[in-house]
Structure formats: C-alpha cells, structure tokens
Design goal:
mainly alpha, 0% strand
Length: 69
C-alpha cells in the first residue's frame, strides 16, 4: 500500500511541477495520472465483478432462478 501512496504522491508532484511549462510536460503528467487511475479501476472492476475479469453474467446461486435477474 505504501508504494501505491508513493506513486500517488509522485503523480501529484509531477502534475504540480508541470503546470504552465508549455512543453508538453503537463499533458504527459495528466496521461500518466489517468493511466494509473484506469489501473485502479480495472483492479476494482475485477474485484467486484461476479462474472470475473471477462465480464458477463455471474453464475447462478444454487436454487436461484435466472428469471429473477
């Protein structure tokens, strides 16, 4: 977890440092930050998706009717 916190701090520092430079550094910092956000969202989706990382419908529980979905 601490390495993730360090990554977040580094991304924020890069965004702050790149503001107003006009050399493309800010755009690169934003891209890096969004890539990290999307990594988090992918892991979160894999964690909460009952259908697994491939998506799809979750498996039926024993005795559950498919028409209840």
């Amino acid at each position: 977890m601490s390495s993730d916190l360090e990554k977040h701090r580094a991304l924020l520092s890069a965004l702050k440092a790149a503001q107003g430079k006009g050399d493309g550094a800010f755009e690169q910092a934003v891209t890096n930050a969004f890539e990290h956000v999307f990594e988090h969202l992918g892991r979160l989706n894999d964690h909460v998706s009952l259908g697994g990382p491939e998506g799809g419908d979750p498996h039926l529980k024993p005795g559950e009717s498919p028409t209840l979905r």
